[in-house]
Amino acid sequence: MNRVVKRTISDIKSLKIQGARNVARAAMQALGAQARSSKAKSTGAFFKELERTADALAESRPTEPMMRNALEEALRRFFSEVGAVKPTSLSEARKQVLDEVNSFEKRVEQSKKMIAKFGAERIPKGSTILTHCHSSTVTAILKRAHKLGKKIKVICTETRPLYQGHITAKELSSAGIKTTLIIDSAIKSFMKDVDLVLVGADAINSSGELINKIGTATLAFVAYEEELKFYSAAELFKFDPLTLWGTVEPIEERDREEVANPRKFPKVEIKNPAFDVTPARHITAYITEYGVVAPQSLFALASKHFDMSNPYLTKRGK
Ligand code: RUB
């Protein structure tokens, strides 16, 4: 694997690159870098090399179907129904991969614009929005609502253990939005000031459940109890088609050192799950690039726009 791929994997693991969209984009760029630098002598060897690269990238964070879907889609076009590599010259194959990388980049930019548009329409004038962690999709919606003159206020949780909420607070305040930073455990105390909750998405499963940064499920539960709207901004590529085939979305368990120094707690088990699962009944709607949908309708919308055949069967041709 080339240097760009190795660095991308390490940056994704350390959260230097964070948020599902940024992770997927970086992974696709790395796939392109591998395609450019490949010394393979045949198209078969070339695709094997790219498959290995895609697998290594996909494993860097297990709860990221957007990255898996993007890599999967980029490669599966080159395999025939029976799993053999389609006949093509090496230079043509390289060009096809790079075209896929470029078209993915354009597609995510376009979907972000559409989500920002649909999302901003859902934000009432003068409202206060509570958000959690850092989602580039959420900040795009909030910045658009601000540009439309909606005079919004945003409350950000700090998001333990690695404080991605600080990124959100800095980004929104720099854009001129009135921003308040709170500790995660203060959400209930601030709910009286909040009009709606808006978070991103790492994954959506076949039941319409949301898998997002740890703490999201608690936030959704509190919002539900307070009868507040709870939205998740998510392009359809966050849907994990493997969950249609009985796979349970894996929850990444991260290094315990992120929570506390284990040497200071010799007899304590330290746990650090990165994500949790929010039930569909606590979610008002998903804001997607094709419009706003109830969680129960997300699969129908996703299957209209994407090929939902079993990606592993398609890719491996088994
Ligand atoms: C980030 C997080 C974000 C989603 C969506 O977690 O939970 O809400 O990834 O982000 P982490 P985006 O910091 O662990 O990656 O909208 O940018 O895809």
Notes on the protein architecture:
The chain is an alpha/beta fold and 318 residues long. The protein folds into 2 domains: 3-113, translation initiation factor eif-2b, domain 1 (Four Helix Bundle (Hemerythrin (Met), subunit A), Up-down Bundle); 115-303, Translation initiation factor eif-2b, domain 2 (Rossmann fold). 44% of the residues lie in helices and 13% in strands. It is built from 11 helices and 10 strands. A 7-stranded mixed β-sheet has the order 3-2-1-4-7-9-10, sandwiched between helices. It has a 3-stranded antiparallel β-sheet with strand order 5-6-8, with helices on one face. Helix 7 links the parallel strand 2 (153-157) and strand 3. The longest helix is centred in the first third of the chain and has 32 residues, at 90-121. It is globular. Residues 312-318 have low confidence and may be disordered. It binds ribulose-1,5-diphosphate.
Question: Helices, strands, pairings?
Answer:
Elements: H1 3-13, H2 20-37, H3 43-59, H4 65-76, H5 90-121, E1 128-131, H6 136-147, E2 153-157, H7 164-174, E3 178-182, H8 187-190, E4 196-199, E5 203-204, E6 210-213, H9 216-225, E7 229-233, E8 275-278, E9 285-288, E10 291-293, H10 298-305, H11 311-316
Parallel strand pairs: 1-2, 1-4, 2-3, 4-7, 7-9
Antiparallel strand pairs: 5-6, 6-8, 9-10
The protein binds ribulose-1,5-diphosphate (RUB).
The site of ribulose-1,5-diphosphate has 19 residues, from helix 2, helix 6 and strand 6.
